[in-house]
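note to self: dont lose this again. the chain is below, predicted strucutre after it. 194 aa total, dont forget to put it in the shared folder this time
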Amino acid sequence: QDDSPFAVLDDTLAGFPGDQLGIIKATDFDNFFGVSDTENGDNAGPLTAEWTFDISAATGGLELSIDLAAMGDFEDPEDVFQFEISLDGAPFVTAFTAVAEEALTQDYTLESGTLVSDLVDPLSVDGVLLSNEFQTFTELIGGTGSELTLRFTSETNGTEAFAFRNIVIMGLTSAGLPGDFNDDGVVNAADYAV
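---
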């Protein structure tokens, strides 16, 4: 966490009790990706990251899930947080886009119990407001192939914080039962071997 953007860290129990912005708590040691202030003296324009997954063993379609969290005063269209997917080199299509809800306010509770009230312009994904607590978002991808590329694009010019973790690509069987990798109609230990 030492190299993480300051706004992403909730330091209210770790030496900065007056901190008013943060997602990752001092007691949270799970891996995450954090984004804040990508428009600065060192960076200009959107930043991107890509992950490639071998999906050749998947049958019957795919499902993408990601845990998302955000906190801050976001502006539209200046603050961009978008996930896109590509199957086998096809053009990228949008999976999730975070949108600034400029007519709304959001309350956030920091690790110390401090309530940050009525912070304007929160982010939403698929109509669900993001908070500084991770929420899982799922998207059915459909189709199969050999390789799936996930691209994340971000651009923000302030102290707003966006974080994500637990990127999961799961194959669906033709029956649509998540995790039934051997197509026997049940999800059990035999699916793990496949």
